[in-house]
Hints:
245 residues; mainly alpha; Heme Oxygenase, Chain A; 11 helices; 70% helix; globular
Amino acid sequence: MADLPGKDLARELIDKSRAEGHSTPVEAVIAAAREGGFNGDRAHRLIGRLWTLERMFYYIYGGWGQGLEMNDFPPSVKYLFSKQIVDESTHEMLYLDALLKKGLVATQKDAFRHPYGSFSVDSGLAYYVFSLRNLATYPHSIRIAALNLGPKILELGWMEGLAAATADAELRGVFESQFVENRSHVNMGRRVVEEFIEKPVDAELCRWACAVAKRDYNRFLGELSAFVLGREAPAPPPPRRQVTD
Length: 245
């Protein structure tokens, strides 16, 4: 509908993220998979770290859900968000099932104990998780724009590339099975922005939050790529200092 207040903003955010979707740090992993250099340990490293990230969405969405009030959004938007929570839980189980089926761990307890599946607060993964969790202080429309029109589009881009590059049928199936759900998350983000972002200040907050989420997600992807390929992780960005007179 042409009269939706946030239609142009949603298109702007989607186009910008799609343009960045095939230039993430995971391109190095995709190149290794395409060249056949994706052995069992590399697959274990990849699945283990992605599984660790997916587990953290329980923490992120738990905080976001507390900020949904009774009458601020229609039931359909809240239903879509609850579906996204279920989808994320499904993806977490997909990764765990892949670890078990490939014989990389014997039990779920072993997956938690293994260093590839551990969570450390001193990591790019933690930085990204805490960044998303902190968006709980903003309206639901802004945080959904930040995630679903930012990192979710980047995720879909590199997943499509890796699924096409890998010769591992099980790994390809894990990624391909997420495509429909991730596309639905992008569509939900577009709908929320189109319908509920009306004020210029909220549009600027969406741009800012989306850019920050993508920055922190790319930091995690850089750490992930280096870990999978056995390389040194990129250094964290230097702290910004505010200069005052």
